[in-house]
Amino acid sequence: MNFRNRDEFWAFYVSQHSKPSTRRWHFVGTLSGIFFLICSLLFSWWFLLFVPFSGYGFAWYSHFFIEGNIPATFGHPIWSLLCDFKMFGLMLTGKMDKEIKRLGKRPILQVF
């Protein structure tokens, strides 16, 4: 699936995270990834090994077992990472629900 710009991908990304528990697991994964990144800077570079496992582990679990779709990371890794941080920021500030309403109901598309 091709996207012309970041806004198109963002609408798709949000549609792939339609369930609140999927978004919560993503939040936990991103937060734990940030935690391990900070630990690697403060204590030992070995903590870097846990960054992708914790971040992607929680997120992929939510896609396979809660949302029932394929993670957008498989088809668009860079845009997915950027949108994950955007979603994390919106959730942290309490604005994600407003963003979901702004986008309206979108069809849930598969990456492949």
Automatic annotation (TrEMBL):
Record's keyword terms, sorted: Membrane, Transmembrane, Transmembrane helix
Superkingdom, taxonomy of origin: Eukaryota
Pfam families, sorted: Mpo1-like
Keyword Nucleus set for record: no
Alphabetical list of InterPro entries matching this protein: Mpo1-like (IPR009305)
Bilayer-crossing regions: 27-54, 74-93
Matching PANTHER family: DUF962 DOMAIN-CONTAINING PROTEIN, TRANSMEMBRANE PROTEIN
Name of the featured protein: Transmembrane protein
